[in-house]
Amino acid sequence: MVKRFTRALMMVGAACIALGVTAQARAQEDPIRIGSFLAVTGPASFLGDPELKTLEMYIHRINGAGGLIGRPLELIHYDTGADANKARTFAKRLLEEDEVDVILGGSTTGTTMAVIPLVERAEVPFVSFAGGVVIIEPVKPWVFKTPHTDRMACGKIFEDIRSRGLSRVALISGTGGFGKSMREQCTQVAPAHDIEIVADETYAPSDTDMVAQLTKIKNTEGVEAVVNPGFGQGPAIVTKNFAQLGFEVPLYQSHGVASKKFIELAGDAAEGVRLPASALLVAEKLPMDDPQRPVVMGYKTTYEAEHGEGSVSTFGGHAYDGLMMYKQAVEAAGTADPAAVRDALEAIQGFMGTAGEVTMSADDHLGLDLSAFRMLEIREGDWVLVE
Amino acid sequence: MPPALVELLQFLFSGLTSGAIYALVALGFALIYNASHVINFAQGEFVMLGGMVTWALLSQGVGLPLAILGAVALTVLIGLALEKLAIERARNADVVTLIIITVGAGIFLRGLTSVTLGKDLHALPAFSGNDPIDILGATLIPQSLWILGVTAAVMVALHLFFNHTLLGKAILATSHNPLAARLVGVNVNFVLLLSFGLSALLGAVAGILIAPITATHFEVGIMLGLKGFAAAILGGLGSGPGAIVGGLLLGIIESLGAGYISSEYKDAMAFVVILGVLFFMPSGLLGKRGTERV
């Protein structure tokens, strides 16, 4: 009798454990699987590192608040080191083995482009965090991106130059990927803004002196403004050489150097330099009634609370925008089904992100306009909003 | 002055400034090459360490002169350690093996710096302000004068050292014939150690001088090292005066090329000139006209 009772008890116990296990197994099957491949190490680690931190941080927060449409989010991430070949391998793994519902990632244009054929074939939505305009032009059905493009930066700069009544522009560009791409975009959009490029100089990213190129520009007849598309130390050296040669025309830098680091490197020479930048950079300086203020302040304070004062960057912001846009699309679709989410992403209207207000359409998978950029001027070692 | 001359003067100033730095780096290559026939591909890393360590000390609140001294001392120590721990232990190996060891040491030093001091760009303050000096219409920043002045002083000091001290002569003797030098009582191992220390010193000085102009980061040594190597080849590998002439010439060629021809090919022009020199005078402008005896 006692024996039978014990056995019954044991069976109940076993059943309970079994049930518990299956319930747990179901919960593990249930999450929405977010795949990601970012350049967390290597030459583009300054992009991938804040992007991954942002994804981890906000996925943790969404899960803490009960998940997305009742399902937890699971992040599956691989580090590409900015290598396009690795990106392709990892994307394949994400799509075929991990069977993800969406891919958010791709820190650089190169890694993003390598992955596009795979996601198009697998029919899984893909939101890239990379800058290049080729990602969304021509439009690919399953590919979206969050950061503004070089072309928009050129447009913003030219708009500002025109508003000062100037039109004859000298370019001095870095020959690295960023400078080269932006130089091409600037030359392309110049006619549309009534801008005439009267000088076009270049320098290698590791050059230590650009006096020769700038002297040439200075001796070119009728230059009214100088624009420096570039990235890293080059623009800081250009700015110093520019001050040394005593130019009397305005100097424009690009969004590529929109960070406090640039002011620190260029020092006093940076006074009066203008550049287009994302609102995140000047979050505190935005007017109280600016519709973008709550978003950028929210992201900035959340990120800095976890990773230290002054650690926020626009790059992490691109990841934030991607994740939040996906969240909104899933909520609108009511499912994580890839096709439904893709349609919902394309239908996003008036989404306010750190990069600006996004309105997607069938022929625009970026959805930002020039107002996404703020024109800044450096005064007394700090940013001032020009508009 | 006519504008064309002002322009030329401006190009020359800018070329001489870069050239002086290349010359310092090239001298470092020459010193080690003379003592061991090894091309030290960690030379660029000495340049990087000079700048980065100075920045690190400055950010800890150390004054600029002391930070510079500290950075030079630390770089010299690292140079000595490289010789003691890596080169000396493999002294019986081929020269090629030793060269590969220096490549490895360079990668190691870069990695170590990126881990300990971070991957960010850093600026050093200019030694005496940023107000440009006007010379006949062309402008020069005070830091350029520092670079030219210190480079000249280093050259004079090296000249005195090699021609008027026993130690300097011992190094020269070793470079001409290590076996004969050993026979007359020169401690060849010590000479090698010394040449690494001196090269590290030159590299660190170059790195510190240029950092206020270009900013410094953990990878800054790669290109400067390559340009310095090119300058050393141009002047004749192993020749002190050759390294100086090669460095200055390389700087001026780059600057004039960028100014008068096209900035697109600035780096290419320097390397084309070097190819030309190697084709037509393989031992460089001032190198020893060596003949291999079989």
Automatic annotation (TrEMBL), chain A:
Residues 1-27 form the signal peptide. InterPro entries: BCAA_transport, Leu-bd, Leu_Ile_Val-bd, Peripla_BP_I. Residues 31-366 form the Leucine-binding protein domain. It comes from Roseospira navarrensis. Keywords: Amino-acid transport, Signal, Transport. Belongs to the leucine-binding protein family. One of its GO terms (biological process) is amino acid transport. This is ABC transporter substrate-binding protein.
Automatic annotation (TrEMBL), chain B:
It comes from the Bacteria. The chain crosses the membrane at residues 12-32, 39-58, 64-83, 95-115, 135-162, 183-211, 268-287. CDD domains: TM_PBP1_LivH_like. GO terms for biological process: amino acid transport. GO terms for cellular component: plasma membrane. It is a multi-pass membrane protein. Coiled coil: none annotated. InterPro entries: ABC_transp_permease, BCAA_transport_permease. Keywords: Amino-acid transport, Cell membrane, Membrane, Transmembrane, Transmembrane helix, Transport. It is found in: Cell membrane. Pfam families: BPD_transp_2 (PF02653). One of its GO terms (molecular function) is transmembrane transporter activity. Its main location: membrane. Belongs to the binding-protein-dependent transport system permease family. LivHM subfamily. PANTHER family: ABC TRANSPORTER PERMEASE PROTEIN, BRANCHED-CHAIN AMINO ACID TRANSPORT SYSTEM PERMEASE PROTEIN LIVH. This is Branched-chain amino acid ABC transporter permease. It comes from Roseospira navarrensis.
